[in-house]
Every structure is written in C-alpha cells, then in structure tokens.
Amino acid sequence: MTTSALAGPAGQLHPPAEETHESGQLAEGLLRGDEQSFAAIYRHWAPLVHTLAARTLGDAREAEDVTQQVFLAAWRGRTGFRPERGPLGAWLVGITRRKTVDALAARTRRTELAAAAAHVPAQTAEQKVGTSPEECLDRVLLADELARLPLPQREVLCLAFYEDLTQVQIAERTGIPLGTVKSHVRRGLHRLRRRITETYGPSRSGAAL
What we know:
The protein is an all-alpha fold. 69% of the residues lie in helices and 2% in strands. It has 9 helices and 2 strands; from the N terminus they run E-E-H-H-H-H-H-H-H-H-H. The chain has a two-stranded antiparallel ribbon with strand order 1-2. Strand 1 and strand 2 (13-14) form a beta hairpin. Helix 2 (35-57) runs antiparallel to helix 3 and helix 2 packs across helix 4 (88-116). It is globular, with a radius of gyration of 19 Å.
C-alpha cells in the first residue's frame, strides 16, 4: 500500500488528489461499518493524521489523543462521508484540522483554569496507548458504546475507565452514594457487554472490556 500523503513545497503533507482503487474499496467498507476496513484505514492514514496534529500542536502525546479522536469521529460519522465530494484521505484531513483546533482551544482553557485555580486538580492517570489497529478499534468501539449509556452510568464508567478511579473515589468525587455508584458500574458494564456482544460478537466484547 502506498503512502496516502504527498510532500508539498515546504514539506507540508497533503492528501492524494484522487482516490486509488484500494482506497475506494476501504471507503466503501467504512460506509458499511466493516471493522476490517476501518482497521486498514487506521493503518493507512494514522501516520498522516498524527503528523499533521503533531506539527500544529508541537506535542506527540496530544497528537496521539487527537489521532484517536479523529478516527472515533470518522467511525461515528461514517454515514456522513460522501465519496463524490472528495477522497477519503481529504475527508480525514478535514476532521484532523477540526480536532486539532479543538485541542488547541482545550489547551487554552486548561491554561486559564490552572492560572485561576487555587490549586490544580490531580491530572488524569496516564494510560498506555496502544498503536495497533486492533487496539485503536477497541477504544473506538468502547467509546462509541459508552456514549449510548444512560448519563449516570456513562459518567461513572468514564471516571473508572479514563481516570482510573476506584468506586470509593468516584463516590467522593461526585457525591453519589457508594451503593449507587456500585449499582451504576454493575448495570453499565452489563449493558456494555451485552451491546458489544450483540453488535460485534463475543471476541470483541472480551477485547474491549
């Protein structure tokens, strides 16, 4: 598979002007919601997306987060992709630009809050970010299904998954009774497993949770 980016005069990366036959097939697979096509799309375009984000943000870790957000947005919004309007690579670059702008705005807000706060809250526990297409796909599927949960369950599980908080810590953070937190976790996990199993099969359920 050839690279999906061309170097411009100043070393700037651009998506290909025309869709190759293989890229067209991947785009068709994405529109069908085919996981293998999505994993191949990630392998093919993630380096370009990461490079564009890193050049703007100047931070490799933030660029990794933006890359994940781009492919999450692509997966969730796949029905909005219109091949007749342009190639898949250009569509992904457009999402990358928007997510990079969002990341810059979020960075500004964090800086302003840190300057105004009496003390800075503890930072989110750093999590190991996998680089394989399968790991990226699992994170995308998990985030997609989390978004479908009722708000109380979603908030509790996000604190557990993404901030690595215990149930006691979640209760202290939110003010929700510990028994209610445990109930939200139990019911939320049950819903997640059932949804992922029904939609993607038992093997994907085990990998994502």
